[in-house]
Amino acid sequence: MNINSNLSGMNAARQLGKAYTSYTDSINRISTGQRINKSADDASGMTIADSLNSQATGMGQGIRNANDAISVTQIADGALEEAVNIINTIKTKSIQAASDAQSPQSRQAIQSDIEHSLEALDRIAETTSFNGQKLLSGEFTDKQFQVGANPNETVGISIGPADSGSLGTTETGSLSDIDVTTFEGAQKAIEIADAALGQVDALRSSIGSTENQLTSTINNLQSSQINLYESESTIRDIDYAEESMNMAQLDMLTKARIFATAQANASHKNVMALFKQP
């Protein structure tokens, strides 16, 4: 029996410290819901989980970008639908003027109506915009939208002009050149209106295809994002049932080691009992 070195007490204290550290880590995992709370918990697992989270977060922003692009296409398509209605009105007026039952005065009145319609068409082309960017003026071309978490995962959108000066044919002229004050002019106006309708329909077809592509991209991104979060969860998150059982075991082990430490320290009392006077 000695008092200079309490080896059993030192060993019990060391084991108690280890148990207490493990018990504290278990409580921390349960409180956060995560198996990895610091790099020391699982260095390689943390690296993989962080990479998966970064990919998933990037995909989330890509989805938002794709939704912005869909908004652009929907705004443009809605405006072009109204442009179609205006062009159809112009064609109807042109057919009305292409009759010699019309007098010069009535043809002039029809021409005035057509000019008002052209003003409305130009107003649509000038004012249709998204976030300050004009969509139908011919300026919105080769615009790129990042729709993925990696470089160059983009979707491009180009929307041609839809103003009266840009719609028509190179042979007969544009909508802005329409003059139905004569029979020949009215005939030419019908041809111009038909060509303009074809151009607008081509624009809408291209926009519709792009919107479908964006919708498919969003669906794919959402599925991939869920899979990435699931993979991250498998690595980072705890199983509460398993961790609760582990914490209960550590709790009992800690109490046992506290008792062992107390017993080891009691040996000093036995030594001191030797010095008591009888």
State the CATH class of the largest domain: Mainly Alpha
Taken as a percent bin, the fraction of beta residues is 5-15%
Beta strand count: 6
SSE pattern:
HHHEEEEEEHH
Q: What structural class should be given to the helix and strand makeup?
A: mainly alpha
| CATH homologous superfamily descriptor of the largest domain | f41 fragment of flagellin, N-terminal domain
Work out the helix count.
Answer: 5
Report the helical percentage: 55-70%
Give me the CATH architecture of the largest domain, please. Answer: Up-down Bundle
Number of domains: 2
Instruction: Determine Rg (CA atoms, Å).
Output: 39 Å
Q: What best-fitting shape do the alpha-carbon axes yield?
A: rod-shaped
Describe the strand arrangement of the main beta sheet, using strand numbers: 1-2
Q: Topology of this structure?
A:
Elements: H1 7-32, H2 43-97, H3 104-127, E1 129-130, E2 133-134, E3 143-146, E4 154-157, E5 168-169, E6 173-174, H4 183-236, H5 240-273
Antiparallel strand pairs: 1-2, 3-4, 5-6
What does the model show?
- With 278 residues, the protein is mostly helical.
- The protein folds into 2 domains: 7-33 and 238-273; 62-235, Up-down Bundle (f41 fragment of flagellin, N-terminal domain).
- The protein is 69% helix and 6% strand.
- It is built from 5 helices and 6 strands.
- The protein has helices spanning 7-32, 43-97, 104-127, 183-236, 240-273, and strands at 129-130, 133-134, 143-146, 154-157, 168-169, 173-174.
- The strands form 3 sheets. The chain has a two-stranded antiparallel ribbon with strand order 1-2.
- Strand 1 and strand 2 form a beta hairpin.
- Helix 2 packs antiparallel against helix 3 (104-127).
- The radius of gyration is 39 Å and the shape is rod-shaped.
- The model has no long low-confidence stretch (mean pLDDT 87).
